[in-house]
């Protein structure tokens, strides 16, 4: 019964977050992200029962049919929404919290070859945009937004927005105390500042100010003296 409860939650969650979902039947039969979670549920059950090879086989079949790769040992929370999903990879020791949204091309990957915690931990309510890469045993805090194509290599505080390569925190509204609102692709509406462009703009203003000071200290440039002004030139005596 608990399994059917979770399936019902997943269907309702998809319909709330995707305006293209017109019916429950459409979600059940036409959403690869939903299918991938079903495959993972079966693969995880086999893995926990000590059936490692069957668990990997079920996971592999899910990958072939959906284009989404989730290791059977990965921990996936409730109401996780995988939108589109093609190319998404979730590694063995990854942990994904409740109400997380993942888009296509996302990687929750490891950077170590040791048998240890080597994949990310994603907090509740996080949105990870298309193509984002979160690598290593880093922790992404609750309700953080990871922009499309960002590369996250260190821990992310709760409620912040991260963009760029490597990902940097931008000045944006703190979402830790905000209601549970959905932010598509991890990019909040409005003008999102670019931290690199901001630094470069500040450097250019500083250079311009230094040029103005140098010009003021050096005074006006001397006038060019024409060769014909020399009284000795052309004197035949």
Summarize the structure.
With 237 residues, this protein is α/β, with parallel strands linked by helices. It has helices at residues 2-17, 24-30, 32-48, 52-66, 195-218; strands at 69-70, 75-76, 81-83, 89-90, 95-96, 101-103, 107-109, 121-122, 127-128, 133-135, 139-140, 145-146, 151-152, 161-163, 168-170.
Q: If you had to describe this structure to a student in words, what would you say it looks like?
A:
- There is one protein chain.
- This protein is of the alpha/beta class.
- It has a single domain, classed as UDP N-Acetylglucosamine Acyltransferase, domain 1.
- 33% of the residues lie in helices and 15% in strands.
- The protein is built from five helices and 15 strands.
- The chain has helices at residues 2-17, 24-30, 32-48, 52-66, 195-218; strands at residues 69-70, 75-76, 81-83, 89-90, 95-96, 101-103, 107-109, 121-122, 127-128, 133-135, 139-140, 145-146, 151-152, 161-163, 168-170.
- It has a six-stranded mixed β-sheet with strand order 3-6-9-12-14-15. A five-stranded parallel β-sheet has the order 1-4-7-10-13. The protein has a four-stranded parallel β-sheet with strand order 2-5-8-11, with no helix packed on it.
- β14 and β15 (168-170) form a beta hairpin.
- The radius of gyration is 28 Å and the shape is elongated.
